[in-house]
Design a protein that fits this description.
globular, about 270 residues, TIM Barrel, about 35% helix, two-stranded antiparallel sheet, alpha/beta
Amino acid sequence: MFDYHIHSNYSLDSKMSMADACIKAMELGLTEIAFTDHIDLDWPDNIFPAFDISSLNEYIEKIEEIQEKFCNYLTVKKGVEIGLQPHTLEQCARIVTSHPFDFVIASVHIVGRKDPSLPAYFANKDKNQSFIRYYEEILTLLESFDQFSVLGHLDYVKRYSPYPYKEDDHTIGSDIIDEILKTLIVKKKGLEVNTSGYRHISNTPMPHFDVIRRYKELNGQILTLGSDAHNTRFIGLNFQEALVAIKNAGFNQLTTFSGLKPQLFAPCIM
């Protein structure tokens, strides 16, 4: 089993060492992981430091050191989670193409210079408006960006919504979500199943089971599984529940990556 969304202490919101992450992964019986530390260029709020890797070369070298150290026990891939904004797309593309990544998550953490994890994003927007605005931004950015493997946490906005949760929240903006999924398929890109959603009141992965099923109906094929862990406690979180949901959605295979090229593997359920 594979965890393809792990943040080490090269992300400023994590204190977990790569070695500790690998040890935990092995204890859980994982066979492959990808470190996907943050690069978010031009973070708009000066109160918070930007989630970027200060030295990409050092980051790559550290992963290579870890690969060698754990090579007999665990496959470790060089990944990155790159945050997209309209004015940073060219720089993001250069970063990806100039480094030997195996795997790239494209994520949207900023919309209109506001962070959906903070109350200011939701000001003067009701639930529908705040969700739809987020999905519209994803669609616009994906149409202009190709240097990635999968789209990360499609419904990230729900994680921080101040509005009361309802079981049909995942249907908000469904027409735009459909266009996002179709864009991924046309570009031969994948969708991430992010189990951090199980820590939300919805108790579902991100995106919702129905969105994963819809991706399959549209002939989507590339699906990765990631915990979005920032500490060892959350590595592999709720993977068995997520795998059941993935199988129920019609998928018999998960995807791993080497040198940005996808490889399909049958998922196991314990």
